[in-house]
Amino acid sequence: MSTADQTVRVLLADDQHLVRTGFRVILEVEDDIEVVGEAADGERAVSMTRATSPDVVLMDVEMPGMDGLEATRQITADGPAAPAVLILTTFDRDDYLFAALRAGASGFLLKNGTPEELVEAIRVLARGDGLLAPEITRRVISTFARPGDPTGTAHRGPDADAALAELTPREREVLVLLAAGSSNAEIAATIHLGEATVKTHVSRVLAKLGLRDRVQAVVFAYENGVVRPGG
């Protein structure tokens, strides 16, 4: 991933040419962002990702042929070495949201967001952090809270148990706060530590659990019963 003094390489994947053009116009005025390619469908997004090695892929979901969900799954199959995928989604499509989470997406923005939010989201993902809009974090938690909803059913396996056993009590506390959608600053205030120390704890949690970013930590925590909504 790019660091603060490097250019962030971005690939645009959307089936509408005008939308891609709009994104390009927004992004190319930024000195630290370079659009390295465009794709009009999921298959092209996958091949262009391999050809251009972007840091961040800006991914639409509904595209002809291979959709954005399958493209995300293929792009993120390389694990932490893969580029981050930023999904643009609508608030009322829980099916897309959770499928994309499980496919390995690192960030989500609502399509009614501002250009400034888009630019900042790309920078956040390029730094190696995940991003969920606050509205989407609440949506995730509320969906996991629904009684009888299979999306919210914990299914901890032996691998998850072994990974969780590696966490210290403090790291487990940090994981619980991550699952609530807390920022590093909010975690620091809650457990009375400096932000730098919290960042170290977050990095260790992700490494021990084999997760790419805090977005995947949210999914892991709920799917494996580490936290329960309302608990």
Brief descriptors of the model:
231 residues; alpha/beta; Rossmann fold; Arc Repressor Mutant, subunit A; 2 domains; six-stranded parallel β-sheet; 6 strands; globular; CheY-like_superfamily; transcription regulation; DNA-binding
Mean pLDDT, to the nearest integer, reads 84
CATH superfamily of the largest domain: Response regulator
SSE order: EHEHEHEHEHEHHHHHH
What is the fold-level CATH name, i.e. the topology of the largest domain? Rossmann fold
Supply the CATH class of the largest domain.
Answer: Alpha Beta
Modified residues (4-aspartylphosphate): 60
Keywords: DNA-binding, Phosphoprotein, Transcription, Transcription regulation
GO biological process, one term: regulation of DNA-templated transcription
Protein name: LuxR family two component transcriptional regulator
How does this structure look, described?
It holds the Pfam family Response_reg. This is LuxR family two component transcriptional regulator. By secondary structure, the chain is of the alpha/beta class. The protein folds into 2 domains: 8-132, 3-Layer(aba) Sandwich (Rossmann fold); 150-223, Arc Repressor Mutant, subunit A, CATH 1.10.10.10. Helices cover 50% and strands 13% of the residues. Helix 3 (68-75) links the parallel strand 3 and strand 4 (84-89). Mean pLDDT is 84; it is low at 150-155.
Helices and strands in order:
Blueprint: E1 8-13, H1 17-28, E2 33-39, H2 42-52, E3 56-59, H3 68-75, E4 84-89, H4 94-103, E5 107-110, H5 115-126, E6 131-132, H6 134-144, H7 158-165, H8 169-179, H9 184-191, H10 195-209, H11 214-223
Parallel strand pairs: 1-2, 1-3, 3-4, 4-5, 5-6
Helix pairs in contact: 2-3, 3-4, 8-10, 8-11, 9-10
